[in-house]
Amino acid sequence: MLNFLGDIATKLQPFRRLSYLLAALLVGFIITQLLKVPSQNQVAVSCEILSFVGCIWLLLFNILLSIFQNIPSEDNCSLGFLARVKIKTQRFFYHLLALMFITLTLIIVFLSFRMLRI
Protein backbone atom coordinates (compact mmCIF):
# COMPACT_ATOMS: atom_id res chain seq x y z
CA MET A 1 0.00 0.00 0.00
CA LEU A 2 2.81 2.40 0.87
CA ASN A 3 4.69 1.66 -2.32
CA PHE A 4 1.55 2.27 -4.37
CA LEU A 5 0.85 5.62 -2.67
CA GLY A 6 4.53 6.57 -3.01
CA ASP A 7 4.51 5.75 -6.73
CA ILE A 8 1.36 7.80 -7.26
CA ALA A 9 2.83 10.72 -5.32
CA THR A 10 6.05 10.75 -7.34
CA LYS A 11 4.23 10.44 -10.68
CA LEU A 12 1.84 13.28 -9.86
CA GLN A 13 4.50 15.75 -8.64
CA PRO A 14 4.44 17.78 -11.90
CA PHE A 15 0.79 18.64 -11.24
CA ARG A 16 1.44 20.22 -7.84
CA ARG A 17 1.70 23.79 -9.16
CA LEU A 18 -1.41 23.31 -11.25
CA SER A 19 -3.30 22.17 -8.15
CA TYR A 20 -2.19 25.33 -6.30
CA LEU A 21 -3.41 27.47 -9.19
CA LEU A 22 -6.76 25.67 -9.33
CA ALA A 23 -7.18 25.97 -5.57
CA ALA A 24 -6.49 29.71 -5.71
CA LEU A 25 -9.02 30.13 -8.53
CA LEU A 26 -11.69 28.15 -6.68
CA VAL A 27 -11.13 30.03 -3.43
CA GLY A 28 -11.28 33.32 -5.35
CA PHE A 29 -14.53 32.23 -6.97
CA ILE A 30 -16.03 31.30 -3.60
CA ILE A 31 -15.01 34.64 -2.09
CA THR A 32 -16.44 36.64 -5.00
CA GLN A 33 -19.70 34.71 -4.78
CA LEU A 34 -19.92 35.34 -1.04
CA LEU A 35 -19.26 39.08 -1.48
CA LYS A 36 -21.99 39.51 -4.09
CA VAL A 37 -25.43 40.81 -3.18
CA PRO A 38 -27.59 37.86 -2.09
CA SER A 39 -29.99 36.67 -4.75
CA GLN A 40 -32.42 33.83 -5.21
CA ASN A 41 -30.27 32.24 -7.90
CA GLN A 42 -29.78 28.52 -7.35
CA VAL A 43 -27.06 28.31 -10.03
CA ALA A 44 -24.69 30.46 -7.95
CA VAL A 45 -25.27 28.29 -4.89
CA SER A 46 -24.55 25.11 -6.82
CA CYS A 47 -21.38 26.67 -8.27
CA GLU A 48 -20.25 27.57 -4.74
CA ILE A 49 -20.85 24.00 -3.62
CA LEU A 50 -18.93 22.64 -6.61
CA SER A 51 -16.07 25.03 -5.88
CA PHE A 52 -16.01 23.99 -2.23
CA VAL A 53 -15.96 20.29 -3.16
CA GLY A 54 -13.17 21.00 -5.66
CA CYS A 55 -11.13 22.75 -2.94
CA ILE A 56 -11.56 19.76 -0.64
CA TRP A 57 -10.36 17.37 -3.36
CA LEU A 58 -7.38 19.59 -4.20
CA LEU A 59 -6.47 19.71 -0.52
CA LEU A 60 -6.57 15.91 -0.41
CA PHE A 61 -4.44 15.78 -3.56
CA ASN A 62 -1.83 18.06 -2.00
CA ILE A 63 -1.82 15.96 1.17
CA LEU A 64 -1.08 12.91 -0.97
CA LEU A 65 1.77 14.67 -2.74
CA SER A 66 3.39 16.08 0.37
CA ILE A 67 3.13 13.11 2.74
CA PHE A 68 3.87 10.12 0.52
CA GLN A 69 6.66 11.65 -1.54
CA ASN A 70 9.62 10.30 0.47
CA ILE A 71 8.78 6.94 2.00
CA PRO A 72 11.84 5.03 3.32
CA SER A 73 12.54 1.79 1.45
CA GLU A 74 12.28 -1.65 3.01
CA ASP A 75 15.65 -2.84 1.68
CA ASN A 76 17.85 -2.32 4.72
CA CYS A 77 19.89 -5.50 5.10
CA SER A 78 23.25 -3.72 5.13
CA LEU A 79 22.25 -1.17 7.77
CA GLY A 80 22.81 -1.41 11.49
CA PHE A 81 20.24 -2.46 14.05
CA LEU A 82 19.22 1.04 15.14
CA ALA A 83 18.91 2.24 11.55
CA ARG A 84 16.61 -0.68 10.73
CA VAL A 85 14.49 0.05 13.83
CA LYS A 86 14.28 3.70 12.80
CA ILE A 87 13.16 2.77 9.27
CA LYS A 88 10.58 0.30 10.60
CA THR A 89 9.23 2.95 12.98
CA GLN A 90 9.02 5.49 10.17
CA ARG A 91 7.24 2.99 7.92
CA PHE A 92 4.80 2.19 10.76
CA PHE A 93 3.87 5.85 11.02
CA TYR A 94 3.55 6.05 7.22
CA HIS A 95 1.17 3.08 7.40
CA LEU A 96 -0.91 4.97 9.97
CA LEU A 97 -0.90 8.05 7.75
CA ALA A 98 -1.93 5.92 4.77
CA LEU A 99 -4.82 4.47 6.75
CA MET A 100 -5.91 7.98 7.79
CA PHE A 101 -5.54 9.17 4.17
CA ILE A 102 -7.72 6.34 2.83
CA THR A 103 -10.31 6.97 5.55
CA LEU A 104 -10.29 10.68 4.77
CA THR A 105 -10.70 9.90 1.07
CA LEU A 106 -13.73 7.72 1.75
CA ILE A 107 -15.25 10.40 3.98
CA ILE A 108 -14.73 13.04 1.30
CA VAL A 109 -16.30 10.77 -1.33
CA PHE A 110 -19.32 10.34 0.94
CA LEU A 111 -19.54 14.09 1.62
CA SER A 112 -19.17 14.86 -2.08
CA PHE A 113 -22.13 12.66 -2.89
CA ARG A 114 -24.15 14.20 -0.07
CA MET A 115 -23.25 17.77 -1.04
CA LEU A 116 -23.97 17.23 -4.71
CA ARG A 117 -27.09 15.17 -3.93
CA ILE A 118 -26.26 12.42 -6.38
Kindly describe this structure.
- Keywords: Membrane, Transmembrane, Transmembrane helix.
- It is a single chain.
- The protein has 118 residues and is mainly alpha-helical.
- It has one domain.
- 78% of the residues lie in helices and 0% in strands.
- It is built from four helices and no strands.
- Helix 1 crosses helix 3, helix 2 runs antiparallel to helix 3 and helix 3 packs antiparallel against helix 4.
- The mean pLDDT is 86.
Give the secondary structure arrangement, pairings included.
Elements: H1 2-11, H2 16-35, H3 42-67, H4 81-116
Helix pairs in contact: 1-3, 2-3, 3-4
Concise overview:
By secondary structure, this protein is mostly helical. The protein contains four helices and no strands. The mean pLDDT is 86.
